[in-house]
Write a structure and sequence with these properties.
Layout: H1 8-16, H2 21-41, H3 48-91, E1 100-106, E2 109-115, H4 117-125, E3 128-133, E4 136-141, H5 142-151, E5 156-159
Antiparallel strand pairs: 1-2, 3-4, 3-5
InterPro entries: DUF2058
Keywords: Coiled coil
Pfam families: DUF2058 (PF09831)
């Protein structure tokens, strides 16, 4: 009996033992049947293997797109964090270990920074703010804090509204003086 003609891939599969002669004949016969039906009836035979391969390819493309989108977002977040760190480093106001304590809350906990009287007044009046950067607190001018806030509001810990030193007209306690040494 004459051996059927095999294409190079089939020959390699047979040599490696991944396929056998019977399976190769079966696949070839199935292919001939499909070609004959297609020619005679004009009917397209649906190949489930091709359909499932195409579906898997489409799903892989979608997964790759999603992973690329997530990677891009992570890179953008890193770049944004680097920008904020750079802005803080360039514009920070020095703290003083022997200065006055300024207390504030962060995540429900009371924290303190030690600053000069002038900086403390600026923090209270909204001319300066406190930013969390690299697990420490830095003091920056209010304009810089607002610039950071437009990029990401997460690092801003304290940014009071700018206030005037003049009391309001309808303030019932306007006649009472607040002691200078009153700290909370």
């Amino acid at each position: 009996m004459k051996k059927p003609q095999l294409n190079p891939l089939q020959a390699q599969l047979l040599k490696s033992g991944l396929a056998n002669d019977a399976k190769a004949r079966e696949v070839k016969a199935e292919k001939r049947k499909q070609d004959k039906l297609k020619r005679n009836n004009g009917v397209e035979i649906v190949d489930e293997i091709k359909l499932s391969a195409e579906q898997q390819r489409q799903q892989q493309i979608e997964r790759d797109r999603e992973l690329n989108r997530q990677r891009k977002m992570a890179e953008e977040q890193k770049a944004l964090a680097a920008q904020i760190r750079q802005i803080v480093e360039m514009n920070r106001i020095a703290q003083q270990a022997d200065g006055v304590a300024y207390n504030f809350t962060d995540d429900g906990k009371v924290k303190s920074v030690y600053v000069s009287d002038k900086v403390r007044t600026a923090l209270v009046n909204g001319r300066a703010g406190i930013v969390r950067a690299d697990n420490r607190y830095e003091i920056v001018p209010a304009e810089v804090a607002r610039k950071i806030q437009t990029r990401d509001a997460g690092p801003i810990v304290v940014l009071n509204q700018a206030t005037q030193d003049l009391p309001a007209e309808d303030d019932p306690y306007a006649a009472y003086q607040i002691p200078d040494d009153l700290l909370w």
